[in-house]
Each structure stands twice: as structure tokens, then as C-alpha cells.
Design goal:
mainly alpha, Hydroxylamine Oxidoreductase, Chain A, domain 2, globular
Length: 429
Amino acid sequence: MKTFNTILAVTGASLLLSFSSLSAEECIPCHREKTPAAVRQWENSAHFKAGVGCEKCHGIDHEKMKRGEARVDMKACAPCHKKAFETHRSSRHGMGLHSGWGCTRNLANRNQKECAFCHDKDSAEPLSQVQCARFLKQSAEMAEVGCNYCHSVENSCASCHTNHNTDLKIVRDPASCAKCHMGPDHPQWEMWQTSLHGTLYGTLGLATGPTCQTCHMPSGTHDVSRGITMSSGGAAYPPEIAKPQREQMISICSQCHAPAFASRELNRGDAIQKQSLSIVKEAEKIILDLDDRNLLDPMPENRPPHPLSGNKLVLDSQLLYEDTSHIERLLFKMKKYDYARTIKGTYHQNPAYAHWYGNAELKMDLIDIKAEASRLRKAGQAQAAPVKGVGNSTETGLKVLQKKLERGAISETEYQEQKQKVLEEFLKK
């Protein structure tokens, strides 16, 4: 009996070992028929030569794979590619998913599996505080295709390297960046391609023309944030962070240019960024004043609630392009498209994007916003019920000042000074 139990234990252990040691040899016969291209790519890869089989990345739960629940994330790559993993995680690409995600806990059609993107699976501690209102407004299908196909760069090496190929020619080609870094809000690909840098690369190759990787991934680093002095929304970093980053970018530029020339060009870009931001802020003030006077059409309380802020006016990075007023839609275009094209076109050495696609549109946006504001004010005056005396305009003025004080647009001292002027004007009348 003891001998039988020993044999049974050894046999069971052998079966368990066999199951836990599923190898590529067991996957290939079937997948050579069902996914032949994937097998060919793997057989020509560095992983094949190093003996990295299917199970190393995909695991051994085949049913989970078939259900699409065993996606290969960056943690599978980290043990062998530690330096790339660490530098990637500390860069902007390392927050790509969370910057395009949003907490779905309040959505009726919520998928509870999504919690794993922002919460630790063991402790449920939040991994990120970043939320995206525009993501939350999308259907599940559009959120996956239109948002996460790019933003999954945070935890998927395959976003750039593809699934089974390991040839570095793929990720050294600037076209690998284009699938995400293009379009109306951040057309870095188009800017580079039609700049002198892009032309030199297209005609004379990498020895003369720098690519995205030359400037943003020097020496093969995965820290794509190196040398950047502001947030993706254009907010300047504090000097203690911005100064060393600028020095790094000048060092990169100095591979081809004189440091003084590089410094002048970058400083000129800084000036254009500040000028452009002042135009955006002027537009924001106009819209905030309309909201103070209840003149937006429709007002926030008369439209579907903002997914993060409810029935309040939102003009920051969570500004929507749907369920909003026309003048806010104009501001969205100004901030998300034209402001971004102006400053990114400047830093990418593309005069057409900096001026005609960016700066000119930015200034015409302000004309449109001022015209729409004038229309809304006139409509508001026409609809206002006539009142006796002059108290109506005074009361409105005092309410507007109170709202400005509450949202921090004016200080307590400014509030008292302006309030006194309104009251003095009332007494004169």
C-alpha cells in the first residue's frame, strides 16, 4: 500500500509538472495552422533564439487565453527587460492608460474588470488619481478603439514593438509613432514629416535627418519625457524640474546644432507658448462671465451632467466636446486643437503648423468666441423681463461679483472695491 501511494504521488507530481511546464512545442502544431503568421514571426524573433516559448509570456491557462483574459502586459516583459521597463514606467508613456481612462464606478453599464486598471488587485489601493471625462462619455466600443488602442502604451510593450516581432527596425521607424501621434490635437508625425528634419531623413537617411527616436529616445532610452519642460496640456513645470530638462534637450539638439542656436530656438518656442496661452485665457474669461450671468445656451444645469463634475461649468483639461454649449465647443477646438498645434508646431520646427494651422486658427477662434458671446448677451437682454427703476442691473452686477469671488477670479479686496463701484453707480442713477 505504501509503495502504491508512493507511485501515485510520483505520477501525480509528474502530471502536475507536465501541466505547469507547457512549452512552445505543445502550442506550435495547432497555431501553425490557426495563426501561421504569429508562429513565423516568433520563429524569426530574438525570443525564439533565446528559448523564450509561448508559455513564458502567455501563461498556461488556454481557456483564459481563448476568452481574451490573458493579455500579455508589461509585467511579463519586465524580468528580462528591467531597464526598459523602469524608464518606460517613469515617462509619459508610463501613464498613458491612466491619462486616458476614468473611474467607471458610477456608470450603469460598468465593467468591474476595469477596476484593475487603477486599483491594486490585492489591496484595492488606487494606483492613479487621473481621470478623463471624455473617456467616460464614450460607448464601450469607442472607448476601447478610440481611446485605449493608443493609451494602452502604458502597460503593453506590443503597442510599439508589435506582438511577436522583436526586430528593432520596427520601433526605430518613426512611422511606429505615427499611429498615435497624429491628428488634429497632436499632429507631431505630420509636423516632423513635413519639417526640414523629416525631409532630410526622407532623402538622406538617419545619418543626416533626425527622427522622433533621435530626439525623444536618445541612445535607445524608453524615457520619452526627457527634455520636456511642460505638461501635455502646456502647463509649465516648476523651474527646478524645467531647467535640467531644458539642458537635456539642448544637449540632444547640440548633436547637430550649436548650443546657443538650440537655446534661442527653444526660448522662442517658450515665448510663443506663453502668448498662445494668454489668448486661451482671454477666451475662458469670456465664457466664465457668461456663466456668471446665466447666459450660456444651454446652461450646465439644463444639459446632461458632466461625468466628473455634475451640472457645473468645466473649462479645464476635462472640457467636453459633447453635451455642451456652442461657445464651449469653440473653446474646445481652441484649446485642444489650435493651441496645441501652435506650440507643438513651433517646437517641431514646422512654420506652417505653428502659424497657419495653429496661431491663425487660434486668433480666429477668439473672434468666433467674442461674436458668440455678443449674440448670447443680446439674446439675454431681449429675454429679460422689464423692471421698474434701476435695481435689476445692480443686482445682476453684485451676483456676478459674488460668483467671481467664489471661484477665485478676484480677491476679497478686489471684490469689495468693485462692489463699492457698483453701489456708487446705482446711487448716481
